[in-house]
TrEMBL record:
Signal peptide: none
Catalytically driven reaction(s): D-glucarate = 5-dehydro-4-deoxy-D-glucarate + H2O
The protein's required cofactors: Mg(2+)
Active site feature: K193 (proton acceptor), H320 (proton acceptor)
InterPro entries linked: DgoD-like, Enolase-like_C_sf, Enolase-like_N, Enolase_C-like, GlucD-like, Mandelate_racemase_C, Mandelate_racemase_N_dom
Pathway recorded for this protein: Carbohydrate acid metabolism; D-glucarate degradation; 2,5-dioxopentanoate from D-glucarate: step 1/2
Keyword Magnesium: yes
Assigned EC number: 4.2.1.40
Pfam family, one: MR_MLE_N
Name of the protein described by the UniProt record: glucarate dehydratase
Transmembrane segments: none
GO molecular function: glucarate dehydratase activity; metal ion binding
The family this protein is said to belong to: Belongs to the mandelate racemase/muconate lactonizing enzyme family. GlucD subfamily.
Length: 424
């Protein structure tokens, strides 16, 4: 079928909600439900492809407007996808669309385009009978390593169902959480979401993890709630303990003033979030590692371009994640498999999702030794489960969060929780 015309005849955009435990971050605590959006593109020959992105009303409205513009598009023309997305947005690019200040500097067009890019690649793979990683240059690794993503976590949070991971509010609780995650998934790297407790408590937690897991690379990510002085102090105290320190402080200037004196490498998914950020970040020496995320960088092919830029300027590359479903895990796995520069274990929220809540049958996404084996079936290698999609869409309609614009990323703002930055 390759070489023949393959036009888009239908695009659907379906918001869904899945249950999320009370994970804590610098903003507060996760809502009981994470909102995601599933897109499905169907072509004239009846081949369909899927993509996934975050939720929130403004983002959803932009996705729907863009979906209408994609009918008639040649599915092989991802350059046309960029043009049509830009046309559909018609200059409507302002606002953080619910990303709660975390990636508001990223490009609206890139964020809107990303799930459609994934769906088109899924179709292209099916048309030529090759997995998506082959369309991205070919897999350089048979399995993509992910890290154990630890969270301070409440148990029995009002209005939130407990999962069986239990509470983790101190170093012993986090070590226990890490042990269970490593036993279950085999992860060989550990990331702690910090910015919740005063830095010395989080340093103690990292040290406890180091004692318990002497060979696991460790990362700490306080989501930019520390001052530059605190960031530097922590970077020095954890010199040789952390593989990298992620977004200790806000902005390219803040990160640059830490990076110049820090013995610990700095990573970011907050101050380098679009192609426009790369030149100033490189010029200021603000970061050592860029944490890519295809949901924010315009999809899988644009992340390949990001990789080339990182290579040019000697920056490391890894991958950020927030609450997601199996479509995104498949897309992340194909992308990481086909990105030689991506040598760190990637982030994933996967263990926090209930196994019975997904829009695809996750069987092809097998974790073994901390990594996901790259699917070899044509396209993404996962198929939409329409009954599950309908169920999670109903959950979206009923969950009480559907009118919110701030539910795609950092959720509930605990009123008792300080929100000023820097907090320490
Ligand atoms: O900076 C990060 O790694 C994130 O923001 C990832 C997640 O979204 C995490 O912070 C969360 O879900 O609370």
């Amino acid at each position: 079928m390759a070489g023949t015309s393959e036009r888009v005849v239908d695009v659907t955009v379906t918001p869904v909600a899945f249950r999320d435990p009370p994970l804590r971050n610098s903003v507060g605590v996760h809502e009981p439900y994470a909102l995601r959006t599933v897109v499905e593109i169907t072509t004239e020959s009846g081949v369909s492809g899927i993509g996934e992105t975050y939720g929130g009303t403004l983002h959803l409205e932009r996705l729907r407007r863009t979906a209408a513009e994609l009918v008639g598009m040649e599915v092989w023309s991802l350059n046309d996808l960029i043009a049509r997305t830009t046309r559909a947005l018609g200059g409507d690019t302002a606002g953080g669309d619910g990303m709660a200040g975390m990636v508001t500097g990223s490009s609206t067009a890139d964020r809107v385009m990303a799930p459609f890019d994934v769906a088109c690649l899924d179709i292209q793979g099916k048309l030529v009978g090759r997995p998506v990683c082959d369309l991205l240059g070919g897999a350089v690794r048979p399995s993509v390593p992910y890290s154990a993503y630890l969270f301070y976590k409440w148990a029995g949070h009002p209005g939130q169902e407990d999962d069986d991971w239990g509470a983790a509010l101190d170093p012993a609780g986090l070590v226990d959480q890490a042990r269970r995650m490593i036993d279950a998934y085999g992860f060989s790297a550990i990331k702690l979401k910090g910015g919740v407790f005063p830095p010395d408590e989080e340093i103690a937690a990292v040290r406890a993890l180091r004692r318990a897991f002497p060979d696991h690379p460790l990362r700490l990510d306080p989501n930019a709630v520390w001052s530059t002085e605190t960031s530097l102090r922590v970077a020095r105290e954890l010199d040789g303990v952390l593989q990298y320190l992620e977004d200790p402080t806000a902005g390219i200037d803040g990160m640059a003033s830490v990076a110049g004196r820090s013995p610990t490498p700095l990573a970011t998914n907050m101050c380098v979030v679009s192609f426009d950020d790369l030149a100033p970040a490189v010029a200021r020496g603000a970061v050592d590692i860029v944490l890519s995320d295809h949901h924010f960088w315009g999809g899988l092919r644009r992340c390949g371009q990001l990789s080339a830029i990182c290579e040019t300027f000697g920056l490391g590359l890894s991958m950020h994640s927030n609450s997601h479903l199996g479509i995104s895990l498949a897309a992340m796995t194909h992308l990481a498999a086909a990105t030689p520069r991506l040598t760190y274990a990637c982030d994933t929220h996967w263990p926090w999702k209930r196994p019975d809540e997904d829009v695809v049958d996750p069987a092809p996404l097998r974790f073994s030794g901390g990594g996901v084996t790259v699917p070899t079936a044509p396209g993404l290698g996962v198929e939409l489960d329409r009954e599950a999609l309908a169920r999670l869409h109903r959950q979206y309609l009923d969950c009480g969060l559907r009118d919110r614009d701030d539910t795609g990323y950092m959720r509930r703002f605990d009123p008792s929780f300080p929100t000023e930055t820097p907090r320490w």
